């Protein structure tokens, strides 16, 4: 969920009980250093990772084409 750009940190907290800081620590521990740096660069200040910054029309945590049928 943390790797996906559209999933907000609040959804991760609701589902797994991990705060944003705990998710960052988990990603730092589990990813290779270069992968972690790329992820942090991607999600820092990303509007879709924080519910308060999202457009009102975005009401889901994933892209409709994310899960193929």
From TrEMBL:
InterPro entries: CHP03643
Pfam families membership: DUF2805
Superkingdom: Bacteria
Name of the protein described by the UniProt record: TIGR03643 family protein
Source organism of this protein record: Pseudidiomarina aquimaris
């Amino acid at each position: 969920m943390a790797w996906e750009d559209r999933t907000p940190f609040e959804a991760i907290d609701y589902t797994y009980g991990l705060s944003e800081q705990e998710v960052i620590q988990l990603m730092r521990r589990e990813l290779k250093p270069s992968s972690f740096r790329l992820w942090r660069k991607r999600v820092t200040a990303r509007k879709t990772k924080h519910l308060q910054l999202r457009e009102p029309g975005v009401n889901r945590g994933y892209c409709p084409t994310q899960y193929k049928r």
